[in-house]
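Troubleshooting: if your tokenizer reports a length mismatch, compare against these two reference records.
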Amino acid sequence: MNNIKIDSYEFIINKHKGLVYHIVNRFNVCAFDRDDLIQVGLMALLQAAKRFDINKGIKFSTYAVPFILWSIKKELRNKVCYLNEEEIDNLKSPTDNFKYQYLNEEEQELYKLRVIKQLSQREIANKLGVDQSTISRKLKKLKVEIKKGM
């Protein structure tokens, strides 16, 4: 009986692992190994398969997507993306989509906190000791500067 369950889970995972790849591809996060996120998503898919009740009348994929999304988002929230000095220097390379070096010091710091470290506006505001609306305005201004520099 256990082999039947294991075979069933394997079949479900193989049939629906495309969901995991699709969801992982929606995330564009620095310094995270895509394979790690896929692994987290596959584990969530297995968890969904174990909890799925066919008698509820919903498709497995509909049931599994929230499990996968939640697990991947949790993994991303639990890790903060730090760059080493070489990676920061690479941001200043001419091959970038914008001229990072032309941003002032405050804009560079905001860029690092929001884009590289993936902090929320609230987290940035707390870190810098200002209110969230100030950060929101500064990020909008930064977006304009980045577009001008592209």
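Reference record two:
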Amino acid sequence: MNRALLLILLIALFSCQSQTSEADDKQAILNVMKLQEEAWSNNDLEGFMEGYWKNDSLKFYGSSGLTKGWHQTLENYKKGYPGKEHSGTLSFKINDISKIDDGSYWVMGEYFLKRNVGDAQGVFLIVFKKINGEWKIVADMSC
């Protein structure tokens, strides 16, 4: 009888840890995105890109097609948003964060740019992966 109770307690403990871990993962991802909002809104595109995997295998898919690599993605942002009047103030609306497997999630949401040259908005689907203990975007589809 004591063994059965111990087994039930262990199962409950591991179940709670799993849920807490997923909740912690989601909060960590939201924290990355909050830092991105702040960096972008300060026209700090390099700071914004800290949320992305700094690797040639990063993939960004947008209205201009597929871009591969962290440096090329940054260069595209610099061309498209050359100053504060173009970058404006960024805010995200997160509609879903779903676990893909251990160490990766997708995030679906909307972005809003409030700016002097005209507001802009769109949708995105990004994939986060935990790399060397940090959550990084490895794929981004925004339009």
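Descriptive notes for reference record two:
- The longest strand covers residues 89-101.
- The two ends are 59 Å apart (CA to CA).
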